[in-house]
UniProtKB/TrEMBL annotation:
Top-level taxonomic group: Bacteria
Signal sequence bounds: none
Native source species: Streptomyces achromogenes
Pfam family, one: CHAT
Annotated protein name in UniProt: Tetratricopeptide (TPR) repeat protein
Regions annotated as coiled coil: none
Residue ranges of every copy of the CHAT domain listed in the record: 624-870
Length: 872
């Protein structure tokens, strides 16, 4: 390239339009024995590249040489510009005092347009340091000068920075206006890196406005743009982690933050970004119930921020540290005082996190019995309930509820809990993906628990039932949102099936599969990302179940002679709510932890009994069933009456084989995630055409032997087997069917429950596939292992195959929560269908089918493993 002034100076804007090209051309300039001015520009370009995407130590070396060369060039403007770039690098390296001194010299040396650019850089560095008011002052001084000089690029950067500072101060509307103006300017330039930054900034604004799906979509789009430029994206990683935490995906946020720290350390990157990533990881660990990791990450972040003279950031790290210490039970008067002082500091900074600190101080004080302090701090925290993003308002309502609790106002507690959960309801309607809706409920767990506790103490069983329903299985109340015929999602699902099928075939043949597994994981990430981008469009209607909207009288009327047993958990103990006969009664159960352990032992016993030769374990498993009954039903076991029973367990007890409990063994028993869900299923009308669909997947030990026999009993059902049992055809036939029976290998994915699957001829049929149905079958029977296994997430939510079907029109499901013997399944399924042909419900037919089986241990265990869900 030529070494003319214009061509060399053009390298500076190029570093953000095409970073790699700018770096290589700058290195070429240095190979041509350039003048001091041109060499200064080249070293500055290399320094910027190393500062933002490489080794900060190398950046400082190049920028100091650029400064010295600029001084030799006798250009005060050139020297001022380099000093501005050097100041940013010094701040990012943690050398705050030196960086601010460089800015002072740059402002003094530059004039007009150049000084405005230095002011912009200093404003950016002040934002990094958390000195937001000073940052606003500098950027406000810079923008008119940059605009008057018709400097589109730097004006757009300054508007973007001002918007980001506004967000840090909670001024969302001002930020959105600046982001929109900056994006309009970027559209007129070729600055690809800055355009990606504009998309990232829109994602940040969407997040602060409470639109999580839009935020995830925009941040992923920005990531794609950065990837094309080949530049690392540590700031974007921080922002994406913040959104993931708001979406209830804290473990993923922790993994992403830790991975970014590893990359940053590997290149010797900015220490400021490392501190921010450590703080992000600490927040994620705290939300993921890992206080030990939170303390470790937050302590290092706090030390780094202190050394970098970043008091705003240091205060936020301190907040996480105190929260994590309180979560470990280390509560003391000193911790209360620390939290209160911190809240005052955050309030002085006008930080949106200040209410969290006041709430923390109030909560610890309340636990220590310091009522006066608790009331004072909680009253301040409660002010945030009136405005701001949804989760900030939830914080305020939580403080209001605790304050009412501290002052002895039961009515005030219930009102605050209701208002806070309403805010979360509205927030969840913006989320289209069922996974996000389920995980978002974790934010309401404390409010629901407080309301249940007050109801237990003062309101009686019926009110406790209403509040138990208020925040139970709410994600299942509406179907997930799907845009019509999303071609990208469909293409991803097809590619996923092909790769997963090839990987499965390779495993069977003993061939290596690492490459295929890597590609499968990549496709899973793309599919999941696509679904998380979808925004909810279905508002809550008039049948919104929850809180005071739940009608216990309606439930009791629908039960008739039957009983519904809802298990609530308060302070770790099961409370049994027995509904029926026109009333709701409460009985005490055992400890939830004991019941969970016993349920796991039962699952192990059923796994053993699924194999011949384990008959000796049968009495042991039966004894476990008696123990489970004592823990889960208590005295209610003897008050069930003669009719059918519906069990509504908490999510953590979803794997209990209810038919094993002695009081339920001979009964018609069904399970529902909530009483509201059972009512919806009870009131769901079957499709008019009565179509039956029978599916046989590959690789079953019995080859799905029940399917041909069942087909012969239904006249002209749709039978899909061999090559016809491929996912597109299966989904097309299942849509709107009256009855579906699927005999296929089931795989539960504890690591990613939405990828739990049934094996078809062309690969796995996954939960995401089921969610594309306009209406899932009215009744569906899943005759293979583990099809009823679910993941407990959020406050009291479940993710898996069964729960994917319930919001889509399925009123009843039969599935297995444990491994079963394929041969023993065949007679059970034949007897089940015989009952359905006689007009029985799924629960009635399953009860009769169990009774018709041989009395040996293998067949009994097989019957116990299957559960009827819903009300059909």
């Amino acid at each position: 390239m030529t070494a003319g002034n214009d061509s060399v100076l053009a390298l500076l804007p190029m570093v953000f339009a095409s970073p790699g090209d700018a770096l290589s051309r700058a290195e070429e300039v240095l190979d041509t024995d350039p003048t001091p001015l041109h060499a200064s520009v080249a070293h500055q370009v290399i320094g910027i590249w190393q500062r933002d995407w490489g080794d900060v130590r190398l950046a400082l070396d190049h920028l100091r040489r650029a400064r010295d060369l600029a001084a030799r060039s006798d250009s005060a403007e050139r020297e001022a510009d380099v000093l501005g770039t050097l100041g940013v690098a010094l701040v990012h390296a943690g050398r705050t005092r030196q960086g601010l001194a460089a800015f002072e010299r740059g402002v003094a040396r530059g004039t007009g347009h150049t000084r405005a650019r230095v002011l912009y850089r200093r404003a950016y560095s002040l934002w990094v340091l958390g000195r937001h008011r000073e940052a606003l002052e500098d950027v406000r001084r810079a923008i008119p000068v940059l605009r008057q000089a018709d400097d589109v690029i730097w004006t757009a950067r300054a508007r973007t920075l001002r918007a980001t500072v506004h967000l840090a101060l909670g001024a969302v509307e001002r930020a959105e206006a600046d982001f929109a103006a900056a994006e309009a300017l970027w559209d007129t330039t070729g600055q690809e890196h800055d355009k990606a930054d504009a998309v990232e900034s829109r994602g940040l604004a969407a997040f602060h406005s409470g639109d999580v799906p839009a935020a995830l979509r925009l941040l992923d789009e920005a990531q794609e743009r950065y990837d094309k430029l080949g530049t690392p994206t540590f700031m974007l990683a921080i922002r994406r982690c913040e959104v993931l935490m708001a979406a209830g995906l804290a473990p993923e946020a922790l993994a992403e933050a830790d991975a970014a720290i590893g990359v940053l350390d590997g290149i010797g990157g900015q220490s400021t970004r490392k501190a921010e990533l450590l703080l992000t990881a600490a927040r994620a660990a705290r939300l993921a119930d890992d206080p030990g990791t939170a303390i470790a990450r937050a302590a290092v972040a706090e030390r780094l921020f202190a050394g970098q003279r970043r008091t705003w950031w240091e205060a936020h790290a301190r907040l996480v540290l105190i929260e994590a210490r309180a979560a470990t039970g280390r509560r003391s008067g000193r911790l209360v005082a620390d939290a209160a002082r911190l809240a005052e500091r955050l309030a002085a900074f006008q930080a949106p996190a200040a209410p969290e600190a006041w709430l923390l101080a109030g909560r610890i004080a309340l636990d220590l019995g310091r009522a006066a302090d608790a009331e004072r701090y909680l009253r301040i925290a409660a002010r945030s309930r009136r405005g701001g993003p949804p989760l900030a308002r939830v914080t305020g309502w939580a403080a209001q509820a605790l304050w009412a609790r501290a002052t002895g106002s039961g009515r005030g507690v219930l009102e605050a809990c209701r208002r806070g959960l309403d805010v979360l309801d509205d927030h969840r309607t913006t989320l289209g993906a069922s996974e996000l809706r389920a995980r978002a409920t974790a934010r309401g767990a404390e409010l629901a628990s407080l309301a249940q506790q007050v109801s237990l103490e003062r309101g009686g069983p019926r009110r406790l039932l209403a509040w138990s329903e208020r925040w139970r299985a709410t994600a299942l109340s509406t179907p997930p949102t799907r845009p019509p015929a999303d071609p990208v999602l469909l293409s991803g699902l097809t590619a996923f099936r092909v790769i997963a099928s090839r990987a499965e075939a390779a495993r069977r043949d003993g061939r290596p599969v690492p490459a295929l597994e890597r590609e499968q994981r990549r496709l899973e990430r793309e599919i999941r990302s696509r679904t998380l981008h979808i925004r909810g469009v279905t508002p809550w209607g008039g049948d919104r179940f929850g809180g005071d909207r739940f009608d216990a009288r309606r439930l009791l009327d629908r039960l008739g002679e039957g009983r519904l047993v809802e298990l609530a958990v308060l302070n770790g103990r099961v409370q049994v709510l027995l509904c029926g006969g026109g009333r709701v009664r409460r009985f005490a159960g055992g400890l939830l932890a004991d019941a969970e352990r016993e349920a796991e032992h039962v699952q192990a016993g059923l796994r053993r009994l699924a194999h011949p030769g384990a008959e000796g374990r049968l009495p042991v498993v039966e004894a476990m069933g008696r123990r489970l009954e004592e823990l889960l039903l208590g005295e209610a076991a003897g008050r069930l009456g003669p009719g059918p029973v519906v069990v509504v367990p908490p999510a953590r007890l979803h794997r209990v084989p209810w038919a094993l409990l002695p009081a339920l063994r001979e009964r018609v028993v069904s399970v529902s995630p909530s009483a509201s869900g059972w009512l919806r299923a009870r009131e769901t009308d079957p499709p008019p055409d009565g179509r039956q669909v029978l599916v046989r997947g590959p690789g079953l030990a019995t080859c799905g032997a029940e399917v041909p026999e069942v087909a012969g009993r239904y006249g002209t059902p749709v039978v899909l087997e061999h090559g016809d049992a491929h996912v597109p055809r299966v989904l097309a036939e299942l849509d709107g069917a009256a009855l579906a029976h699927i005999a296929a290998h089931g795989t539960f994915r504890a690591d990613s429950p939405m990828f739990s699957s049934l094996r078809m001829a062309d690969g796995p049929l996954i939960v995401h596939d089921f969610e594309r149905l306009a209406r899932s079958p009215y009744r569906i029977i899943l005759s293979s292992c583990d099809t009823a296994r679910l993941a407990s997430v959020g406050a009291d939510e479940l993710l898996g195959l069964v729960t994917a079907l319930l919001p889509l029109g399925t009123a009843g499901v039969v599935a297995s929560s444990a491994p079963v013997n394929d041969a023993a399944v065949v007679p059970l399924m034949l007897a089940l269908h015989e009952g359905l042909r006689r007009g029985l419900s799924l629960a009635e037919a399953l009860r009769d089918a169990r009774a018709a089986l041989p009395g040996d241990a293998l067949h009994q265990a097989t019957g116990w493993a299957f559960t009827a869900f819903g009300a059909a």
